[in-house]
Write a structure and sequence with these properties.
It is globular, with a radius of gyration of 18 Å. Strand 2 (84-88) and strand 3 form a beta hairpin. It has a three-stranded antiparallel beta sheet with strand order 1-3-2, with no helix packed on it. It has five helices and three strands. The longest helix is centred in the C-terminal third of the chain and has 26 residues, at 133-158. The chain is mostly helical.
């Protein structure tokens, strides 16, 4: 069955909306929700395990796995150092550094836009979707960043 011509546009608009929501959540004061934070950490941990398995089985992705993981962990640690946490009327709140999160998000968005511009969509049955080491490394960087900053946020909030 042929795909309607509007489907790529709808998919791009959907991804753009998700990025807009993600960036908007990084700006301003946030209310800390422990259940949401725990769920996010659990899902990111599962994703990280999957990325480790894929990166470990494909030898050409090992450098991207290592560099992306270390860079993401370092950026997550840096974001924690610049995160402000406080309690107002018994409600725990935090403000993350919008510059660090924004740069990480824009890196991945720029890479995905470049792939779309170059039309690097693999043909059916020829390559896996994450065949590019650069894209793989950026995804690993993003997951490591959110995992480290999420775990650090939970630890800081327990102190309050």
């Amino acid at each position: 069955m042929p795909v309607p011509a509007i489907m790529p546009l709808l998919a791009t608009a959907g991804v753009g909306w998700l990025y807009y929501r993600r960036i908007r959540r990084q700006l301003g004061r946030q209310v800390y929700r422990p259940q949401r934070a725990a769920l996010r950490i659990a899902l990111l941990s599962l994703l990280a395990c999957g990325l480790l398995v894929v990166g470990g089985s494909a030898h050409r992705l090992l450098p991207a796995l290592a560099i992306g993981g270390l860079a993401g962990a370092a950026l997550g640690w840096l974001a924690l150092r610049h995160m402000r946490v406080w309690v107002v009327d018994g409600v725990r709140r935090y403000v993350s550094n919008p510059w660090i999160g924004g740069v990480v998000t824009l890196l991945l968005a720029a890479r995905l836009a470049w792939r779309a511009y170059r039309f690097e969509v693999p043909a059916a049955g020829t390559q896996p979707l994450m065949a590019s080491p650069l894209t793989y490394g950026l995804v690993v960087l993003l997951v490591a960043y959110y995992l480290v900053s999420g775990i650090g946020l939970v630890r800081r909030m327990r102190a309050f």
